[in-house]
Here is the input.
Amino acid sequence: MSEFKDFYDTLIENLEGYEGEYAYFINCGPNLFNLLCDLLSQKEISRQMRLEISAAHNLKLDYESKCENLHGHNWIIEIYCKSEELDKNGMVLDFTVIKKRIKEKLDHKYLNEIFDFNPTAENIAKWICDELSPFCYRVEVTESEDNTAIYEV
Here is the structure.
């Protein structure tokens, strides 16, 4: 923390004499230093998992599209989770839990029979994120090489 104190002191020295927005930093003094120390001491551990799921769907759209017909994809799903602390097993969220909640529920299924919403890549990404809450903060759902939906909280 001493190197941060040195950085803070140098910052304040360089800002002295400035008016306007920089004066705020100088006037905050120790409160700013304590706030910055608190922010720097917060750590998060992240975990990323990639799943491949084969599933079929058809979309309900308000315009004519071939996607209204039954069709399937080999979906690639990237799931990003984080936590400020690890669980008792030393994990953010066990890969087995992710597989059970997501892959087992969707793989080799007709998605329209599983969801009560239009099974677009965007809606599926949001659903996955909600299913893995509070750990999941980002989901990427790729239904083909050129089409990826990203949901991020």
Summary: The helical segments are 2-15, 21-41, 95-106, 111-114, 121-131. The chain has a mean pLDDT of 85. The longest strand covers residues 45-57. The CA atoms of residues 115 and 124 lie 9 Å apart.
